[in-house]
Amino acid sequence: MRIWVANHYAVPPNMGGITRHFELAREWAEQEDADVTLWLSSFNHSRRRFIDEEAKRDGETVPGLKLQWLWSFPHDGNDSRRVVNMVSFALLFFLQGLFRARPHVLLASSPHLLTPFAGWMLAKLKRCPFVLEVRDLWPDTLIKMDGLHQTWVVNALLWLESFLYRKADKIVVLTEHQRRFIRDKGVDPAKITLVPNGIRMDSWKPSPARREEYRRRMGVASDQFVALYAGAHGPANALEHVVLAGVHLPDGYAIVLIGDGPEKDRLCALKQEKGLHNVHLLEPVPKGEVFRYIEAADCGIISLKDNEIFRGARPNKLFDYMYVGKPIVSTVDGEVREIIEKNGVGVFSGAEDPKGLAKALMSLRGQKQGKRDTIAENGRRYIHTFGNRQRLASQLYGEMKGLMVREMKSVKEIKRM
Question: Which of 25, 38, 42, 90 can bridge 118 by disulfide, Cβ–Cβ 3.0-4.6 Å?
């Protein structure tokens, strides 16, 4: 089966960012013998710069998987240039796709909605099933996060959202909240499939001997209790509250943030302003190496703004922390809190509450080893049951293959008439 996957913000594992689509595509190429093309941008959104040719060459080579890098307009903030960045990627995806051999299935992912719209047009012209993946609920997120008030823009995005829900042959969501949200829009529930984030089960092996090496890389002492945040540094992540938790921590604790994004400079300035020597802000690292840093830490942090739109979030770092067996401190209420508390893998510290976060970290340090072992076992059991990337990829491949077979039967019936 020939599959196209389009995600403006996808990256291979040797770069920091969204590796979900590369990992799904790799499974389809390796396990299903599929011919997969992943369409992605050569401008890295989180680091706000173009990816050089050396970094592209250093990426993992997978037989059957082709990375189709597309230029997109550079930007360094959430202004008009970011809109041009979105338009340019979607337009080039459409134009280049016109001249490529027809895929059997086309999957396009949000955010934003322009790439899925280009994907739908290509699928229509190529006469293949169109799968819409909803990673972020646009325009709901924009309205509730950014306060989008221009009526004509809101109406246009709402129309496009509804249009894509109607026209998609299959809708893939990452959380139960997203499934309920789309179902309540009047979409047939049978059309919606939950494929959450997950972990490739062989992507990390414990290496306690390297713990001290990675603690040195983080700039922390061997006897410090280390809380790690690994992920995007954007407005949605509310990381100023994580940094400010350092104000309320006694000696013997450290907070480490790994990643990049538009808020990184402001967070560095805040650290300097408050003189927080117990807070460390590091550059992004490749996906595989993130697990080494998590292993060297004592717990993981999940942070998002106190906004109802994030009540249904399941950040990828939730799966990363559980996979390595670390307790989790979450500032996010809703679905992620339910998973953490139901499975006994961490605590909710309160939303946008630096003092509450510090208090939660101190409580985790006081846990006995038996409790820590139970948390690690609970996390790994959850990943094995619900977050196995190979199993999730196989599930989605089976559904796409069903769409392809249905399309082929339909074409044959039309030819007979």
Answer: 90
Task: Please tell me the distance from the alpha carbon of residue 151 to that of residue 115, in angstroms, as a whole number.
Answer: 22
The per-residue pLDDT string of the chain (417 residues; one tens digit each, 9 = 90 and over) reads: 999 999 999 999 888 788 999 999 999 999 999 999 999 999 988 778 899 999 898 888 999 999 999 999 998 877 789 999 999 999 999 999 999 999 999 999 998 999 999 999 999 999 999 999 999 888 888 777 766 777 888 889 999 999 999 999 999 999 999 999 999 999 999 999 999 999 989 889 999 899 999 999 999 999 999 999 999 999 999 999 999 999 999 999 999 999 998 899 999 999 999 999 999 999 999 888 999 999 999 999 999 999 988 999 999 999 999 999 999 999 999 999 999 999 999 999 999 999 999 999 999 999 999 999 999 999 999 999 999 999 999 999 999 999 999 887 766 655 555
> Phi/psi at 31 (nearest 5 deg)?
-95, -25
Q: What is the CATH classification number for the domain harbouring 7?
A: 3.40.50.2000
Tell whether 165 and 220 lie within a shared domain. no
pTM of the model: 0.90
Give all strands (DSSP E) within 338-398, no chain letters. 346-348
Same structural domain, 251 and 367: yes
In a domain, 69, yes or no: yes
Q: Are residues 98 and 227 in the same domain?
A: no
* Integer angstrom CA distances of residue 201 from 27, 198, 226: 12, 9, 25
Identify whether 223 is part of a domain: yes
Distance of CA 288 to the CA centre of its chain: 15
